[in-house]
Amino acid sequence: RAVSTVLPVETNIVIFQLEPTVGATALLRHLQRKAILASMIGPHSIRMVLHLDITDAHVDRVVTALRAFSP
Hints:
Layout: E1 3-6, E2 13-18, H1 24-33, E3 39-42, E4 45-49, H2 56-68
Antiparallel strand pairs: 1-2, 2-4, 3-4
């Protein structure tokens, strides 16, 4: 498990706090290999922005990629 907390969402920005043993850089590389973009906002935090054209299928792809990550 990589994600420890998803902060409350107030806009189209989603912030994930990662488990202390998971570095944001490794997770971002994993996501990038799957053509999923995100930004590091701290050593154990990443930020994703959902745009108007993002579909449920896109979100499902992100969830699948996060579940497949092995630190």
